[in-house]
Design a protein that fits this description.
The complex is a heterodimer. By secondary structure, chain A is α/β, with parallel strands linked by helices. Chain A has 19 helices and 13 strands. Chain A has helices at 51-57, 79-82, 89-97, 116-120, 127-140, 146-158, 171-175, 198-202, 204-219, 236-240, 244-260, 271-280, 293-299, 301-304, 332-339, 369-375, 380-390, 401-413, 425-432; strands at residues 3-4, 19-22, 26-27, 30-31, 39-40, 190-195, 224-225, 263-268, 290-292, 315-318, 345-347, 395-398, 421-424. The termini of chain A are far apart. Chain B is an alpha/beta fold. In chain B, helix 2 packs across helix 5 (189-198) and helix 3 packs across helix 4 (127-135). The chains are: A alpha/beta, B alpha/beta.
C-alpha cells in the first residue's frame, strides 16, 4: 500500500492541494482501491501566511475582520464592487489570507463605510469599525492618498474641507434674503441651533439649499439661530478616513460652541453631522438633542403641509443617504415630506431604504474620486443616477449635502444632462411655499 | 549630513488681502499667515536626505503669532530640532531677514542649508543667495532634487523650457528648493498634539535686521486694466472667435 500526497493539482500555484490515495483499499468489504479512495486533506490554516491578517486584527477595533467565514453575503451588497471595484469584505479577507497587508493596499481606501455589508453579515464583520482604525494606523505611518491628505490639511487649517477662509463661512448669511439669527452676534436662548455644515455654507448648490432652509424655517416661525463662522466641520468623515486626532479637535471645538448658547435642540442639514453629534460627540463630552432637518420638519408636517401651496408635478425618486438611513434608522421622515408636496409623484428606486445604494461620498470617499476612478469602472454616484433614470424619475431628491454635487456631476458624466434634476428636499419644499 | 531648513510664514491668500489706512501695509486684523509652500518642499527634501543618509534636521523660523504650531508640525514630520528666533521685531524685507538667519546659522553646526526658492514676498528669490553671501558659501537655486555625496551635494536645477542642469556643490552651502522629490508628507494631528506635549522649541535671541535702507512708499492692489473685454456668455465668445476668423 502506498500513499501519495502533496502532489500539485495544476491551478498554477504550488502546493495547492494535498490528497491521500491508497493503491489498494478495502472498506467494509468494498474494494475502493486507487482513485476511488482519494481523499482531499483539508488544507491546514497554518499553510497561510497570516502576518497581514494578524497585523490588521491586532489593531483594536479591527478584530472582527478575522471572524469572516466567507459566506459572500456581503459581495452583492458592496456598492464599490457593484461599480467594478473588485472589492468587498470577503475579498479583503481572502487577500489577507493570501498575505496582503491592508495598510499598504488600495483596498484600505475604497470603502465608503455605507454599512450595507454589515447589514447582511452573519458574523458581524464590521467595516465601520475596521476602516477608521486601519486608516488611522496607515496615516500615522505616512501612507495616505494625496487627495485625502489635501483635505485633512484644509480641514486642520481652515475648519472646512474646501480650503476656504474660515471667516467666509458666514458669507452666505450676509447675502441671504431670509431672516437668520447669528448667535455669536445675537446671543440669548433659542429653540433650535441649526448646524449648517460646510457644503451649505460654501458650495454654490449648498448655499441654494441653505437659503431654502432659512426661508422654510421663517415660514414656519421656527425660533432658530446659527453659529456663523464659529462653526467647523462636524469631523465624522475625517474620523472615518483616518484622522481621529483631527476629529477630536473639531468635536471639542464644536461642542464648546454648542455649550456657549442655550438651545433646546440641534437641527442639522446633513446626515454625517447627525451621525457625529448623535453617536460620537457624547463620548467627547457633548450630549445634545439632535435631529436631521427631515425629522424636525416631518414632526411638524401638520403645520408645514398647509403652507405648501405650490405644485410640484414631477416624477421624483428619493435617494436614502447611508448615514441617515442604514446608520441611524431613519427612512420615513424624508418620505413624509415628499408625500406632502402637492402633485409630486414619488417613485422608489429598487435599491431603497435599508438596501439603499451608496452615493460614494461617505468614509472620505468625497475626496477620493480621483483615486477611486483608477480602481473602479464607474463612480458609485453614476451607478445610482442610472438607476434613478431607469425608474422613470426626472428629479432625484436628496437630503445629504454631499449628494447634490456628486449626483449633478454624475448626471453630466452619464450623459443625462437635462433629463434628471438633482434637488435637496428642502429646495422642493421651499419652491412650494407661498408659491 | 546635518541640514538646517529656514522657514518663513507669508500671508495666506485664502483670505482677502486689504491695504490699511496708511496705504503702506496690509490690514493685520484678518491677516492669516501660512508656511511658504516652497519652504514646505525644502523641509520635505531635508527629511528625505535624512532618511537616505542620516544626520539631523533643524528648522529655524522667526517668532510670530502661531509660529509654534508650525514648528511643532515640522518636528512631527521628523525634524530633530526647532529654533524660534526671538526679539527681532518687524523685519522689513528679504535682505534684513537673510541677515537674521545667517547670524543664527553661525551658531548651528551644519552641512547644508535649505529654504524655498521664493515666497510671495520674495518673488525674485533673494533669500537663499543673500544668506549664502553673508556666510561666504555657495548657493544654487531652483532645485528639484538633491543627492548627498562626500562633502558635496549633487543637485538638479530647473531652467526655463524644460531644461535641467546637474550641478555638484561643495558643502557647506545653501540651496533654494523649487520642489522636493516627493509631495510634502502629512503630519497627523494626533502626532502634532503628541509632539506639542512632549517636545520643546529652542529659543535663540536674534540679531541683525533693522537694515532701514528700504521703506514702503505705497502699497496698492492691482488696478483693473482697460484692455480686456469681459464676455458674458458662450454665444458671445463664439461670435468673437468667428469674427476673428479663428473658427
Amino acid at each position: 500500500m502506498t500513499e501519495r500526497y502533496n502532489l500539485t493539482v495544476n491551478t498554477g500555484r504550488e502546493k495547492d492541494q494535498s490528497f491521500v490515495e491508497k493503491d489498494h483499499a478495502i472498506i467494509e468489504g468494498i474494494d475502493v482501491s486507487g482513485r476511488w479512495n482519494r481523499m482531499f486533506v483539508p488544507r491546514e490554516i497554518q499553510d497561510y501566511d497570516l502576518t497581514g491578517m494578524d497585523k490588521l486584527t491586532s489593531i483594536p477595533g479591527a478584530e472582527s475582520m478575522g471572524w469572516c467565514y466567507q459566506c459572500a453575503q456581503c459581495m452583492p451588497a458592496c456598492p464599490v464592487d457593484t461599480a467594478g471595484g473588485d472589492y468587498g469584505p470577503r475579498r479583503i479577507f481572502r487577500r489577507l489570507q493570501l498575505g496582503m497587508d491592508l495598510l499598504d493596499s488600495r483596498d484600505l481606501w475604497l470603502c465608503t463605510t455605507c454599512a450595507n455589508c454589515l447589514r447582511v453579515c452573519p458574523k458581524e464583520v464590521d467595516m465601520i469599525k475596521i476602516m477608521p482604525v486601519a486608516r488611522a494606523a496607515a496615516v500615522l505611518d505616512g501612507k495616505v492618498p494625496v487627495e485625502l491628505q489635501e483635505m485633512f490639511e484644509n480641514v486642520a487649517e481652515y475648519g472646512n474641507p474646501m480650503g476656504q477662509s474660515a471667516r467666509k463661512r458666514a458669507a452666505w448669511i450676509r447675502r441671504s434674503d431670509a431672516d437668520i439669527r447669528v448667535l455669536p452676534k445675537d446671543p440669548g436662548p433659542v429653540d433650535v441651533l441649526w448646524f449648517v455644515g460646510d457644503f451649505y455654507a460654501y458650495h454654490a448648490r449648498g448655499v441654494d439649499a441653505a437659503n431654502a432652509m432659512a426661508r422654510v424655517f421663517n415660514a414656519l416661525d421656527v425660533d432658530f439661530g446659527v453659529l456663523g463662522a464659529d462653526e467647523r466641520t462636524d469631523g465624522d468623515s475625517q474620523r472615518l478616513a483616518g484622522e481621529p486626532g483631527l476629529y477630536e479637535e473639531l468635536a471639542e471645538h464644536n461642542i464648546e460652541q454648542f455649550n456657549r448658547h442655550e438651545h433646546e435642540r440641534i437641527v442639522v442639514s446633513g446626515p454625517h453631522a447627525f451621525n457625529a453629534i448623535r453617536n460620537e460627540y457624547p463620548s467627547m463630552g457633548g450630549e445634545f438633542e439632535v435631529e436631521h432637518y427631515t425629522q424636525f420638519l416631518a414632526r411638524q408636517i401638520d403645520r408645514l403641509k398647509p403652507l405648501l401651496t405650490g405644485s410640484f408635478a414631477r416624477r421624483v425618486t428619493f435617494h436614502d443617504p447611508c448615514y441617515l438611513g442604514r446608520h441611524n434608522g431613519e427612512y420615513d421622515a424624508p418620505r413624509v415630506l415628499l408625500e406632502a408636496v402637492p402633485d409630486l409623484d414619488l417613485i422608489e428606486m429598487y435599491r431603497c431604504r435599508q438596501q439603499g445604494y451608496c452615493c460614494g461620498g461617505g468614509g472620505g470617499g468625497m475626496w477620493l474620486d480621483g483615486f477611486a476612478a483608477e480602481q473602479q469602472s464607474e463612480r458609485l454616484s453614476e451607478n445610482r443616477v442610472k438607476e434613478a433614470v431607469m425608474v422613470g424619475a426626472d428629479v432625484l431628491a436628496v437630503c445629504c449635502p454631499y449628494e447634490v454635487s456628486r449626483f449633478e456631476d454624475a448626471v453630466k458624466s452619464t450623459g443625462n444632462d437635462g433629463k434628471l434634476e438633482v434637488l435637496d428636499i428642502i429646495e422642493i419644499l421651499d419652491r412650494c411655499i407661498g408659491a | 549630513m546635518n541640514t538646517v531648513v529656514l522657514l518663513k510664514r507669508v500671508p495666506d491668500l485664502v483670505e482677502d488681502l486689504e491695504v490699511d489706512g496708511s496705504g503702506r501695509a496690509l490690514v493685520a486684523e484678518h491677516l492669516k499667515l501660512t508656511l511658504n509652500e516652497f519652504d514646505e518642499h525644502a523641509l520635505e527634501e531635508a527629511l528625505l536626505l535624512k532618511e537616505d543618509g542620516g544626520g539631523e534636521v533643524t528648522v529655524v523660523a522667526l517668532d510670530s503669532a502661531d509660529v509654534d504650531k508650525m514648528l511643532f508640525t515640522a518636528l512631527a514630520k521628523g525634524a530633530d530640532r526647532a529654533i524660534k528666533v526671538t526679539g527681532v521685531g518687524a523685519v522689513g524685507g528679504t535682505r534684513e531677514l537673510a541677515g537674521v538667519f545667517s547670524d543664527v546659522l553661525g551658531s548651528i553646526s551644519h552641512d547644508l542649508v535649505l529654504t524655498g526658492v521664493q515666497a510671495s514676498d520674495d518673488v525674485d528669490g533673494q533669500l537663499a543667495p543673500t544668506v549664502a553671501a553673508n556666510l561666504g558659501v555657495p548657493c544654487i537655486e531652483v532645485i528639484t532634487g538633491v543627492e548627498a555625496g562626500a562633502g558635496t551635494v549633487t543637485v538638479h536645477k530647473e531652467y526655463a523650457g524644460g531644461v535641467l542642469g546637474e550641478f555638484e556643490m561643495t558643502l557647506p552651502g545653501v540651496l533654494g528648493i523649487q520642489a522636493a522629490r516627493q509631495s510634502p508628507r502629512y503630519a497627523p494631528v494626533s502626532r502634532v498634539r503628541q509632539i506639542q506635549e512632549s517636545a520643546t522649541l529652542d529659543e535663540v535671541a536674534g540679531a541683525g535686521g533693522g537694515d532701514g535702507r528700504f521703506s514702503i512708499v505705497v502699497m496698492t492692489p492691482p488696478k483693473a486694466g482697460e484692455g480686456a473685454q469681459m464676455l458674458d456668455s458662450v454665444e458671445e465668445l463664439i461670435a468673437v472667435l468667428d469674427s476673428k476668423g479663428v473658427i
